[in-house]
Amino acid sequence: MSITRSTIAAVSITAGIAGALILSSVPATAAPMDNGNGGNRQGGGGFTVQCDFSHSASVDPIVMPGHTGMSHLHEFFGNTTTNENSTGASLLAGSTTCSDSNNLSAYWVPALYQDGTRVAPVSARVHYEGRGANVTAFPAGFMALTGRTDQTAAWGCATRGAQPTFGTSVATVPTCDPGSRLVAQITFPQCWDGTSLDSADHISHLVFATGNVCPTDHPVRVPQVVLSVSYPAAATGGSGVTLASGAASTLHADIFEAWAGNSLQNRISGRGGQRPAVAGGPQNGPQNGP
Predict the structure, then answer these.
(1) Which residues have a Cβ under 8 Å from the Cβ of 104 and sit 6 or more positions away?
(2) CA–CA separation, 16 and 10 (whole Å)
(3) Could you tell me the pTM of the whole model?
(4) Fewest C-beta atoms under 10 Å: which of 188, 192, 200, 243?
(5) Is the peptide bond before 174 cis (omega within 30 degrees of 0)?
(6) Given this model, what pLDDT does residue 38 score?
(7) How confident is the model over 125-151, as pLDDT tens digits?
(8) Which backbone phi and psi does 84 adopt, to 5 degrees?
């Protein structure tokens, strides 16, 4: 890491006390999911992992490591052991709600309230966009936080059998018709500085590509993570939606990457498929191999 964990923790605590739990102001260098034909575009395509809702807690192992009750309420997906003390190593020793049991990563978003009542999410669809020999897997322990901008976060409604339709402003939540479900989507950048597992603001070690070309100070292409969180019918959307972090416009998400062995690189490179979860519940980790 180019920044020590203690330095990051100190900055995070100061930020949290000041009320700035989300420090992500992503440079608007390109629109999410840019499909241009720039110089270092790596094929495109990708894969999706379904991760069921795991648990809720007022902790944040990235922004407020080691502290409980100092963060707003979060909804966690994937790794079932995620808490204020989570590390890459502890996640790899945990278990997961994800459909690929090699994926022991943790994902979380602020709790959602419909007209003042908390509505727990159902699941998160985690898409890793980008494949090819020159796309690099996240190392275990990689952390990032993004959202709160129209470039990185959106609200939409999904109907079974159809792609969700998203709005253009994160400040506006659509009212979903009966039979459709509210969806929150958060998009992470795809260009990494190549050294930092985290940064003081938890996002500047990642930036968006411009025309699908990564800048020289963030030269390493990593999968672009798009997190889509689905809610039950009780979350009808509209102006009654607020978040534990504030207004609907504060929508954001965190990722804490932990894939067993070389499984993520194998999936990116097309050298292996997922290890599916067996019937009966989440799978334990770590497990090696594709």
Answers:
(1) 78, 79, 91, 92, 94, 95, 96, 98, 258, 259, 260, 285, 286
(2) 10
(3) 0.82
(4) 200
(5) no
(6) 29
(7) 999 999 888 999 999 999 999 999 999
(8) -65, -20
Query: CA-to-CA distance for 241 and 133, rounded, in angstroms?
Result: 42
Burial of 180 (0-12, 13-18, 19+ CB in 10 A): buried
Check pLDDT > 60 for residue 279. no
Is residue 264 scored above 60 in pLDDT? yes
Alpha-carbon torsion 101, 103, 44, 39, what sign? negative
pLDDT at 237 over 60: yes
Q: Which residues pair with 165 in a beta bridge?
A: 157
Report the C-alpha gap between 77 and 65 in whole angstroms: 18
Identity of the residue numbered 281: G
Residue recorded with tokens 């700035």: 20
* 45/146: higher pLDDT: 146
| First-to-final CA distance of the chain | 27
CA quadruple 3, 148, 227, 108: dihedral sign: positive
For residue 285, pLDDT beyond 70: no
Q: Is the pLDDT of residue 240 over 50?
A: yes
Q: Which residues contact 6 (CB under 8 A, 6 or more apart)?
A: none
Single-letter amino acid, residue 27:
P
